[in-house]
Design a protein that fits this description.
The complex is a heterodimer of chains A (500) and B (316). By secondary structure, chain A is of the alpha/beta class. Chain A contains 16 helices and 20 strands. Chain B is built from 13 helices and two strands; from the N terminus they run ααααααββααααααα. The chains are: A alpha/beta (500), B mainly alpha (316).
């Protein structure tokens, strides 16, 4: 780590700690920022980046460490206090009030109107009226207005969190130009982005977080991307490829069950094509917000795609309702377990639910058959049955087993799993991989999004990598080690090898 | 102009509906005139204040089920304080009652903010609490109201067709709401109702704003209770039917349950619509049980039509 030399830095965060119950989110996070400098804050999923950002912006209180602005320690407890201390964030989701017009939003946070107008013009938004309702403006415009609002109050430190996500290319260019020009004029910026091209174009330094601690602080120069990836991965790099490859992937044969072509939906998913075969587990690898949510929602019939096609067994599909997707054999298991389970009901009832739903609306429930299938499923799931009276009393991992395991009892053609192992323990994760493999070996097709790259070789046959709404790579399980996946997920080319 | 229509479309529609109802009223009851207008306006007064209070908390993203009980507390407090009071005493009593209203509302808000119990649960509990308080102050209807206060809301002013009670309502609501809605607090009330996280990030103090919104609701409830005592001359400790009526008028008035949208004008027009419908049905000697069915139907149909129109407007 480089120690700041000479003049004291404008912003100096040191040894910041934060834990949530037993979970340690930040152990030792540090960041320094000098006047007129743009520093990239980087880290893989779960490195503690968003916790660090929330602490810096006053949305969370740290358990330890110090944050100094111009040498004065700040103990901001709310975003308002952080802003008064000179730190103005632009968050990923716009923080403008949808039911108020532009002028009222400016008054709400005491933003001067003239500078705001100046920045709106500079950033290339035309035809904005102060009495436009925020709720009726497009997302890209809102993000620009958020940035203009932040620039207008001339903060000491500007913090941009994934500023260019959801922006069209021309606006991205404008934003980068304006931010660079402001930095040259003395504005200090913390820049959070997944896009290496922007970071190398814009930033002076990069601070890398891993497992809740700052592990590196590098000047941006040629080839620094590889160093950053290496720092983000840490020990995982040494594990080498194939360490967790339990899967013998078979080359897919025959026509695909699910064929997606040029699918676009919402602002984030722009062009995804993939084939999902029988008996195959296809991983989806993406950093947060690259369009994977939209992909799964479109396949589950929750969201209508704006263009592209979905074919099931060669038949073109158009889903108007989740029912249509279910009828076509697509079963969506959402990331939030609360969306999939009847929390107050028993494990048995939850497993039997899709079975019951399948029987004719007015028919009696064939209790005997149900009981047999459910008992069978519980045994195979190895669910701790002491708490089976109410699903909400099960641990998160066991709940997740129920959401997947019910499809063993019912039988399933195509399973869409969205980050099923988030926040559950290692042993249960293993059981979930086994479940998924089991379902696939019985002929099901599984689309498996995971935010943990290490899971891909353990559960999947192949993985498609989505970056910026497009498929950028398809990686076989045998080659799907973490460095390869991470580089691909960051949109770096797959050909270059990492330095040994 | 088109912007004005699109922004105030709901209010204009409600006004047209109200005008239509007045025409209908004169058809059903040809001798409906100045005295009818006066009694309609006076009977609507407590409903209108309850609605104004409810509208403020609903805009802030909440709800206050205790509004009728707070009106009862204010009404009996006024009757007890004014009993035998002179001119100066009456003014003090009025100020005192308004302060009690603010305090009750602030207590509701603070209970929601600091206990983190959902607003619907807290205010349901407070409904019983304030009901008990009202009965502790006055066990049976009683007390007295200073007679000259009643003059404020009886008869007409300036024009023969302009009821004093209506002017009283407009002045009270305007004096409280217009400065409030233009202040930073007013914006903050809309902001927390519209998107709490965005409001927090914009530097709005969410908790204090919520407490303030409930306090304003309490203030309007106190005005409602005060006018009840003013017009009847005694304090009534049992809450009247103001809770559901105020929620109905708020919804019909274009305030979205969930917050962020609407204002006070729409709900107050809506309150007149609902009262006038009831009066018309009574005049047309419709079974009172049918009356409530008609009221309920009107609410759903009007809100549905509004939703349909809004969707069409978005498509074009």
């Amino acid at each position: 780590m480089t120690e700041p030399t000479g003049a004291s830095p404008l912003l100096d965060a040191r040894g910041v700690k934060k834990h949530f119950g037993a979970v340690i989110a930040l152990r030792d996070a540090s960041l320094t920022l000098k006047k007129g400098e743009i520093v990239a804050l980087m880290g893989a999923n779960g490195a503690g980046k968003s916790t660090f950002v929330k602490i810096l912006t006053g949305a969370l209180r740290p358990d330890g460490g110090t944050i100094r602005i111009r040498g004065r320690e700040t103990k901001a407890r709310t975003p308002a206090e952080a802003q008064r201390a000179g730190l103005m964030p632009v968050y990923q989701e716009p923080s403008l009030i949808p039911d108020l017009d532009v002028a009222a939003n400016l008054r709400l946070c005491n933003t001067p109107v003239e500078p705001f107008r100046h920045w709106v013009d500079q950033l290339g938004i035309k035809g904005l009226r102060l009495d436009d309702m925020i709720g009726q403006l497009p997302l890209a415009t809102l993000r620009i207005l958020d940035l203009a609002r932040a620039l207008a109050i001339e903060p000491e430190v500007l913090m941009l969190d994934e500023m260019t996500a959801a922006l069209p290319t021309d606006l991205v260019e404008r934003v980068l130009q304006v931010v660079r020009a402001q930095a040259d004029a003395g504005q200090s910026v913390i820049y959070i982005s997944h896009r290496f091209t922007e970071i190398s174009e814009l930033c002076d330094r990069a601070t890398v977080l891993r497992d809740g601690a700052t592990v590196g602080d590098l000047p941006i120069e040629e080839g620094v991307e590889e160093r950053i990836v290496e720092l983000m991965l840490g020990a995982a790099l040494g594990a080498g490829r194939g360490a967790g490859t339990d899967v013998t992937s078979v080359a897919p044969e025959g026509p695909p069950r699910v064929k997606v072509r040029n699918l676009a939906a919402g602002t984030k998913l722009s062009d995804v094509s993939l084939d999902l075969h029988r008996g195959e587990v296809l991983g989806v690898v993406a950093l947060e917000g690259q369009g994977q949510d939209e992909l799964f929602e479109a396949l589950a019939g929750v969201r209508r795609p704006s263009s592209g096609s979905i074919e099931i067994d060669g038949k073109a599909m158009s889903f108007h309702h989740p029912d249509d997707a279910i009828a076509a054999g697509l079963t969506f298991v959402p990331g939030d377990r609360g969306d999939a389970l009847l929390m107050q009901r028993s494990v048995r009832e939850n497993i039997a639910l899709p079975l019951v739903a399948r029987i004719g609306k007015w028919g009696a429930i064939p209790m005997k058959d149900e009981a047999r299938r459910v008992t069978d499923a519980i045994e195979r799931l190895q669910i701790d049955t002491r708490a089976q009276g109410e699903v909400q009393r099960l641990s998160g991992g066991n709940q997740q087993k129920v959401t997947i395991g019910r499809w063993i009892a019912t039988g399933v053609e195509t399973l869409l799993l969205f980050d099923p192992t988030r926040g559950i323990d290692v042993r249960t994760k293993r059981q979930i991989y086994e479940l998924v493999r089991k379902l696939a070996s019985e002929g099901a097709s599984v689309l498996f999004y995971t935010s943990e790259l290490g899971e891909v070789p353990m559960a999947c046959d192949r993985a498609v990598v989505i970056f910026n709404g497009r498929v950028v790579d398809v990686i076989e399980a045998a080659d799907a080690d973490e460095p390869t996946l991470l580089r691909a997920a960051y949109g770096l080319s797959a050909e270059e090898e990492l330095p040994a | 102009m088109t912007r004005l229509i699109s922004k105030q479309g709901w209010v204009l529609g409600l006004l047209a509906f109200l005008a239509l109802l007045f025409v209908l009223t004169t058809v059903i009851q040809p001798d409906f005139g100045i005295s009818g207008l006066d009694s309609l306006s006076r009977a609507t007064l407590p409903f209108a204040f309850a609605t104004a209070g409810m509208a403020v908390v609903v805009i802030a993203g909440g709800i206050d089920l205790s509004v009728a009980s707070m009106m009862a507390v204010a009404g009996v407090s006024a009757a007890v304080l004014m009993d035998g009071a002179g001119g100066g005493g009456t003014v003090l009593a009025v100020v005192g009652v308004l302060a009690i209203g603010l305090a009750m509302g602030a207590i509701n808000g603070a209970a929601i903010v600091y206990t983190r119990v959902p607003d619907i649960v807290v205010t349901l509990a407070m409904l019983f609490v304030w009901e008990g308080v009202a009965l502790l102050i006055l066990k049976a209807p009683g007390g007295a109201a200073t007679p000259w206060l009643r003059e404020l809301i009886v008869g007409n002013v300036i024009f023969p067709w302009l009821p004093r009670s209506f002017v009283f309502l407009v002045v009270c609501v305007a004096v409280i709401w217009i400065p409030l809605s233009r202040s930073r607090l007013g914006l903050s009330i809309y902001a927390i109702g519209s998107n709490e996280l965005a409001a927090y990030r914009s530097g709005v103090s969410v908790g204090l704003t919520r407490i303030a919104a409930y306090a304003v609701c309490g203030l309007f409830a106190a005005l409602g209770g005060l006018t009840l005592t003013m017009s009847t001359g005694i304090g009534e400790p049992i809450p009247g039917p103001y809770l559901m009526a105020s929620v109905a008028a708020v919804v019909l008035g274009g305030v979205v349950l969930g917050g962020g949208r609407g204002a006070l004008l729409g709900p107050i027009i809506a309150v007149f619509i609902l009262r006038l419908v009831r009066m018309d049905l009574t005049l047309a000697s419709v079974d009172p049980n049918v009356t409530t069915i008609v009221e309920g139907t009107i609410m759903v149909v009007v809100v549905m039509l509004g939703g349909v129109l809004a969707m069409k407007g978005r498509k074009t």
